[in-house]
């Protein structure tokens, strides 16, 4: 019933041209930075929180991890690569501890 009502409203918006006014009409939605780096089971809950105006600190940590990994891929200097690997390792440890804490609280 609710799906049918949503479909009806979307159809009406399409017919009266309201949807075509949207800047992103007919284009794929932009993917959030860090989406692929976020564990699949946490993507939707984190997205819901973000859309409501609250993003847990773990989201930022996943974005940082993705940025560090990308920087490491592009880096040619071996000393800098080693420093980036160390930063990435420390960040991944921090993330692992945070995720374990979340899992432990979810089990309570």
Share of β-strand residues? under 5%
Q: How far from one another are the termini? A: 35 Å
The low-pLDDT segments are: none
- Total beta strands: 0
Pfam families: DJC28_CD
InterPro entries: DnaJ_homolog_subfam-C_membr-28
Protein name: DUF1992 domain-containing protein
Organism: Roseateles aquae
Describe this structure as you would to a colleague.
The protein is mostly helical. It has a domain at 33-107. The longest helix is centred in the C-terminal third of the chain and has 30 residues, at 78-107. The protein has 4 helices and no strands. Helix 3 packs antiparallel against helix 4 (78-107).
Summarize the structure.
The chain is mostly helical and 108 residues long. Helix content is 69%, strand content 0%. Helix 3 (57-74) packs antiparallel against helix 4.
């Amino acid at each position: 019933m609710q799906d049918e009502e949503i479909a009806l409203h979307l159809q009406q918006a399409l017919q009266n041209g309201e949807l075509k006014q949207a800047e992103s009409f007919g284009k794929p939605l932009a993917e959030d930075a860090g989406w692929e780096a976020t564990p699949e089971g946490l993507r939707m809950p984190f997205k819901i929180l973000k859309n409501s105006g609250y993003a847990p600190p773990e989201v930022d940590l996943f974005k940082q991890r993705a940025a560090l990994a990308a920087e490491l891929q592009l880096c040619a200097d071996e000393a800098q690569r080693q420093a980036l690997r160390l930063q990435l390792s420390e960040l991944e440890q921090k993330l692992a501890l945070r995720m374990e804490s979340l899992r432990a609280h979810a089990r309570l």
